[in-house]
Amino acid sequence: MWEIIKTSLPQLLAAGFKYTIPLAIISFFFGIIIALVTALTRLSRQRGPFMILKWIASFYVWLFRSTPLLVQLFIVFFGLPYLRIKGILPHGIKLEPFTAGIITFSLNTGAYASETIRAAISSVPRGQWEAGAAIGMTRLQILWRIILPQALRVALPPLSNSFISLVKDTSLAASITIMEMFAVSQQIAAGNYQPLLMYTLVAMVYAVFTTVLSYLQGYLERIVDRQVNANNR
Predict the structure, then answer these.
(1) Which residues contact 142 (CB under 8 A, 6 or more apart)?
(2) Which is more confident, 26 or 138?
């Protein structure tokens, strides 16, 4: 058993640092950008043609929160190649596995994180907007300098939890041939006929990764709290 662990663990860690962690970080980065744009679009009080954008944003959030992540991965990687449009997409949309993973995880994260950001922005008292307007600040300046820093304090814990969950969800990328940690554990288990040992080992590696991220989350929250408290003095 120990010989299997000694030879398998380096392979799992290599896959984790090469695919699992980069996939999670890149997807979360783009997901937060999507989430911020989506949240601000849904919170906007613009009327007229802008309502179409609000409807699209609401539909996007509903769609990705209402369907399984695994199904979304399959649609993007296996389904889009069959989206053939004569003269425009004669061969469909064929994506590399890593690219398909980033697109899917980013969109999925964006849908969930947009609700977190929307709730955090809504939690800031309306008087903050009025106070900023009273001293001549534009709505963009109020949002950037007053509202978002306060909303960040509220949104940081759930967003951090979303990132930790995303790290674990990357195991689904094995289904589209990305050789992240779970895929490597499956490959090794198929060779040594020790699935219980290998899946337990990869579970422990995920546990170590998420534990480290949890400690980093707590450290980051303390930094943000100190910064906000300093600004309020």
Answers:
(1) 128, 129, 132, 133
(2) 26
Query: Residue 157 burial (CB < 10 Å; 0-12/13-18/19+)?
Result: middle
For residue range 10-41, list pLDDT tens digits in order.
999 999 999 999 999 999 999 999 999 999 99
Q: Are 69 and 104 in contact (CB under 8 A)?
A: yes
**What amino acid occupies position 126?**
R
Tokens representing residue 6 in the block: 């000694």
Closest CA to 142 of 132, 155, 130: 132
What six digits make up the tokens of 137?
Answer: 């600040």
DSSP states along 34-81: HHHHHHHHHH----TTHHHHHHHHHHHHHHHHHS-HHHHHHIIIIIGG
Residues in the chain: 233
pTM: 0.92
Q: Pick from 89, 111, 93, 102: which is nearest to 42 by CA?
A: 111
pLDDT score of 130 more than 80: yes
**105, 91, 146, 106: which is closest to 124 by C-alpha?**
146
Cβ-count burial of 40 within 10 angstroms (0-12 exposed, 13-18 middle, 19+ buried)?
Answer: middle
